[in-house]
Amino acid sequence: MKNEKDKFTIAARIKSFKYAFNGLWKFFKFEHNARIHLVAAAIAILLSFYLEISATEWVAILSVICAVFVAEIFNSSIEKLADVVSPEINPQIKTVKDMAAAAVLITACLAILIGGIIFLPKLF
Ligand SMILES: Nc1ncnc2c1ncn2[C@@H]1O[C@H](COP(=O)(O)OP(=O)(O)OP(=O)(O)O)[C@@H](O)[C@H]1O
Questions:
Q1: pLDDT tens digit string along 76-112?
Q2: Which residue owns the Cα nearest ligand 1 atom 9?
Q3: Could you identify which of 38, 61, 67, 72 might form a hypothetical disulfide with 107, taking C-beta atoms 3.0 to 4.6 angstroms apart as the criterion?
Q4: 93 lines ligand 1 (CB under 6 A)
Q5: What is the pTM of this model?
């Protein structure tokens, strides 16, 4: 049987958008890595305008920027969840946190690689 919570309502959809924006606001306000990624993204976007990159290159740059932010948001939320589940030292929590950090590492490496492929030939 369907309960009230399962019903589609515009008000409920608007609320869930508000929760998502609240998460985004908290991410940029409290996570130090978020600010580092934000500065890197701003530099990449300014450089893209300056070098007048093509539409395809814009797609690549914006995609990797988003990928890094998405990975970092998941990493931060997994860290927070892990701290609630197990505030004490736990080898399994270490693996979970290290793997979440590895996801950020992979996307950041990809971003540097794509940035290098697009920007370096135009700069030198
Ligand atoms: N409860 C725990 N048990 C075992 N190891 C842990 C635990 N908490 C953290 N660690 C280890 O310390 C590392 C850093 O964890 P921490 O939660 O401090 O992230 P952080 O330094 O805040 O990361 P970030 O720089 O991404 O914000 C983890 O990747 C893990 O190796």
A1: 999 999 999 999 999 999 999 999 999 999 999 999 9
A2: 94
A3: 67
A4: yes
A5: 0.90
